[in-house]
Amino acid sequence: MSRNYEPGHSVGMLAAVEHGPILCSDSNILCLSWKGRVPKSEKDKPVCRRRYYEEGWLATGNGRGVVGVTFTSSHCRRDRSTPQRINFNLRGHNSEVVLVRWNEPFQKLATCDMEGGIFVWIQYEGRWSVELVNDRGAQVSDFTWSHDGTQALIAYRDGFVLVGSVSGQRHWSSEINLESQISCGIWTPDDQQVLFGTADGQVIVMDCHGRMLAHVLLHESDGIVSMSWNCPDFLVEDSTESDTDSDDNILPLVRRVKPLLTVTFLSGDISLMNNYDDLSPLLIHSGLKDVEAQWCSQGDLLAVAGMERLGDSACSPPLSRNALLKFYNVQGEHIYTLETPAQRPITTLCWGHRDSRLFLACGAALYVVRVEHRVASLQLLCQQGIASALREEKDVGKLNMPSLLCSYVTSAFIPTIKPPIPDPNNIRDFVSYPTAGNERLHCTMKRAEDSPEAGGPCYTLYLEYLGGLVPILKGRRISKLRPEFIIMDPKVDGKTEEVCVNPMISYADSCNCSDSSDIELSDEWVGKKSPKISRGHRMNLESRKSPKMSRSNQEGQRSPRLPMKKPVPRSPSLTRREFSMDGMSEHNYLAQVTSNIWGTKFKIVGLASFLPANLGA
């Protein structure tokens, strides 16, 4: 399902929500971070930002304690090759993941959960594993890498701050005595000082060795939510870029004399300062609440997302409004406004692909905004207008246009988030045919509670996607002696099985089973097996325990590293229907898996009329 949201009017830029189905996880997305990817063919060459930022990885942290690492691309061409694996679900946290931070120079990923657990992940030979673990038992307010990637700054809400190396060695730590809580912490652009913002409007300045330098009150009655500089997060050396490296979305480099310190307050106001002691800062009154703000990497455009503040009108009924995305320049001037599809506050946002993409998370939904930093051409405006009117890519072929123009309109529907997501109206084809590329789809299998009416244990196969799980197939064991199964046809009587109640929200985990496999089924363990074995064995091990054992008792045995995971309240809109077993007959079967008595040889037999009898052994 796609939505039509008209872009705002502005001179000098254009922003529009990407067309296509709305991307969702099975739980609320709480944090985002993006980094560029260097293709293997380019690793021996000097790094060029233009090639480096065409592809990348988006890290997401969600309410189930799972970190998603998903491949993204901005070149809008389907013929470009993708990595063999384009999505990773990293499991290990026992509470909500509230922070994800890429370290581009060292290609590492830091993640923090609600209970203070910090993991540093590293990828080796296609598998992600935990390199470092830090659990102080206190809630983390911010985690920031230095601009050269060699140091990490950790700020805790209770006033404890720590600076360590990228390898895990502690450099120094300090306890700041405050009547308020630390809300954020950042490095200065030269990495010689660290700044901390507090919930009562103060800024604390320390040098890189932990010595206190200054204590400044910016606002008496307004707390600081976040701080940032309008400069790149990391120092990446560029090679000499020739004209042959150019593409259609090259951004002019912005030359700045001095970076701006940006302070976002709880009221929605944003202060632009030359330094923390600036006596005459520029003040932006955004008119928004629940504000999230971030500079693009070029430092010329500030994206501010939030809900519009309405006047106090007790007599008028509340109006349903969408979240707004506003853009400001370095002078604090408002230059553009985009109404987003989100009807709730934006949880987090981040720039990507050399500022040509902006990722927004709202609840479980993820939106991609395409940003044009220059005056939009008439051709681009026509493309966006036609795509908004069509809504679906398959309708482009119905237009009476030259093939070249049809291809240009089709590029508006090519998604930035690359993992294939099944169409709810075409799940049968998704599970019956291989993917267009050479990528592998990694899945998780879970066992539902035994039901006497079902005739045997039932299992659901889930596709891993954006840190969540998407149900795609359901099967039932038909033999108590041999490991034999019947796989249900997801399309019954010409209609696709309902797997989603609200089209705004994607497929959620609807079976009544423990998700404790999030801990035991690590990607490192799966990576040691062949793809066939890994898919066959990635099932919920906890479900084999006695059904009399309560869910809370099962979750208490999940991980010895962190305390028991607290149950995460699920939003009412995330309720989804499970594949129905009622009414299933022999005509609704897709395939059958048979084996010998020892379970060492397997054969897949097609039962549907459109499938061959022998599907492999």
From TrEMBL:
It comes from the Eukaryota. WD repeats lie at residues 90-121. GO terms for cellular component: cytoplasm. PROSITE patterns: WD_REPEATS_2. Residues 54-371 form the IFT121/TULP4 N-terminal domain. Transmembrane segments: none annotated. The keyword Protein biosynthesis does not apply. Residues 530-576 are annotated as: Disordered. Its main location: cytoplasm. It is found in: Cytoplasm. Keywords: Cytoplasm, Repeat, WD repeat. This is IFT121/TULP4 N-terminal domain-containing protein.
